[in-house]
Design goal:
The chain has 55 residues and is mostly helical. It has helices at 11-46, 49-53.
């Protein structure tokens, strides 16, 4: 009783799988950088709350 499973994968499917896996890493990094930039801009515009607490 041979339990073998043969799956043929084309080169296009391999490339798409690699792109998808790279995107899973790149997308969160882009989001983190954008949120970091947005918080920096908001702090420059409105100041930080830490400065107001020491007054």
């Amino acid at each position: 009783m041979d339990n073998t499973l043969n799956i043929s994968v084309s080169s296009t499917q391999v490339i798409l799988a690699l792109i998808f896996q790279m995107w899973l890493v790149v997308f969160p990094v882009i989001i983190i950088l954008k949120v970091n930039r947005l918080t920096r801009l908001l702090e420059e515009r409105f100041g930080t709350d830490e400065e107001d607490q020491h007054v």
